Structures are given as structure tokens and as C-alpha cells.
Amino acid sequence: MRCAIMQPTFFPWSGYFSLINEVDKFVFLDDAQFSKGSWHNRNRIFLAKKVCWLTLPIKKGNLSTPLNKIEIINQNILKNRINIQIEEAYKNYKYFSCILEIINFLTKIENNSLSEINISIIKFLSLKLGINNVQFIKSSDLNIKGKRTEKVINILNEISASKYISPPSAKEYLSQDNYDLNTNIPISFIDYNQKKYSQKNTLNFISNLSIIDVIANIGWSETSDYVKLNDLQ
């Protein structure tokens, strides 16, 4: 049983969904500490011929507040300003009908929790991309203790994982914390090098934009194939 563990971020890039596609169980690390200026409440889209931030404002809180305790300022921003930005950015794109589905989904969200909003969006997009054989789990429901690698290993043990799939960005801290010496669960790293896709209104390819940009440019079906292109190490 293959497992990945990631913090729930706001409209993630395509590599996030590639990781989900590789596993049987995907754990949202929703009780991790919120990080200001991170991908937790913002991501990048292409608007007015330039890269712009799509940001969901949150209520001020203590810097040590866990992600699942962070709340957005209000629903109107999610359902109006965010939707308006997305629509303005991609209204003239070939697959705008797909973007309208995303916009309509956002209007139905009734939760003020940032992590729950992110999780809802990720689950919705995963289903639309044909990634439907994965079990989603929230780490907060597991009530697992520990820090960094210790917590990762405890989660893997709790859900009976037989293999851990991780992004390359975690290699350094997993090595520093002696992952291999503290567990027998094998680990593989997903080497997702984003391939170019046809982008409207730009001469040079802009990488690592939100999955929204991929969908707007190539549609649900091709995006589904696109996120499944990767290599495991």
C-alpha cells in the first residue's frame, strides 16, 4: 500500500496531483503549522499577460497556529473575488467551460476553514482528473505525535503503509533525520519535471503555475494524462 503525505495547499500545481495519482492513500498533513507567504493560501495564475497571485485572505492569528485552525476572512472573497480573478484570467481560453466548473464548485463551499477549503478543492480536481482510486486521510483525524520525519513514520505505521512516495524536496530533511535507520518502510521519490504544455498568450513557457492554468489550456482529459507523466526514483 503506497502512501504520500502533503500539506493541503491552495489550487496546487500539477506535480501535486501527479503525486496523488501514484498512491493508494494520500494523507493531508492538515495539523502542520501554517506558514505565512507559503502555498497554503495562495498560488499563481496567468492574468493580463503576466503571472499574478491568486490569494485567499485569512484571519490574523498566532504564527504557531496549525493549518486546520486557520480561517478565511469571509466567504464572499472566496465566492466572488477569487472567482472573478479566475474568470478574468481564463475567460477567452479554449477550455473555459472547464474553468466554469471550478468556479461553480467554489460557490458551493460553505466552510471557513482554510485547510478544509483546500482539501475540498483538491478532492474535486482529483475526481475531475480521473484520480479516483485513492483514499484521502487527514492527519488531524489520526492524532499522531512527533516532529518532521518522526511524525511521517508514525503516520505511515498508523495507516499500515508498505511504501512511502515523497517529493524530492523532502530528501534532505529525511536524510538528516535518518529515515532509513528508523523504519523499514521503503521510500521512493517522484521526479516530476513539468513538461511544457500549450499556453495561450505567452511566447515563453511559464512553469509551475496553478493546475488551473493547465486545465484552462488543455482541458480535463489532456490534463489527466499530463499529470500522470512522471518518474519514480
Radius of gyration: 18 Å
Helix segment count?
9
Q: List how many beta strands DSSP finds.
A: 8
Basic shape: globular
**Proportion in helices:** 25-40%
Strand order of the largest sheet: 5-2-1-6-7-8
Computed structural class: alpha/beta
The description of the largest β-sheet is:
6 strands, mixed
- Average pLDDT works out at 93
- Residue share in β-strands: 15-25%
Please write the string of helix (H) and strand (E) elements. EHEEEHHHEHHEHHEHE
Low-confidence stretches: none
State the separation between the terminal residues, measured CA to CA.
Answer: 17 Å
Would you give an account of this structure?
Helices cover 40% and strands 15% of the residues. The chain is globular, with a radius of gyration of 18 Å. α1 runs parallel beside α9, α2 packs antiparallel against α3 (96-107) and α3 (96-107) packs across α9. By secondary structure, the chain is an alpha/beta fold. The mean pLDDT is 93.
